[in-house]
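Board notes (copied after class):
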Amino acid sequence: MTILIIVLGMILVITAVAALYVKQLVSAIIIAGVVSLIGSILFLLVGAPDVAMTEAAIGSALTTVIFLFAWSRIRDTRRSHDTTAESGTKEEQHD
């Protein structure tokens, strides 16, 4: 059991560092959710099932969903601004 905890702890650290170096934001969000899920498994293994359930529900699921929702809203806003900027440039060229 101790070896499993150590291995999961190492995977947790490696995955957390990977989230820092990923270039795409959506990949970093998903990796952060995986880090939280691994953390919840570790809490379960050390005998804290209540903390594990809370971490899985809030840390892994809810936070990841909120971040993905915010990311999609930012992406949509950027697209609408880019479209507005392009149409404004075309109108200026016709004048």
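Comment from the instructor: The two ends are 74 Å apart (CA to CA). Helices lie at 2-21, 25-45, 49-94.
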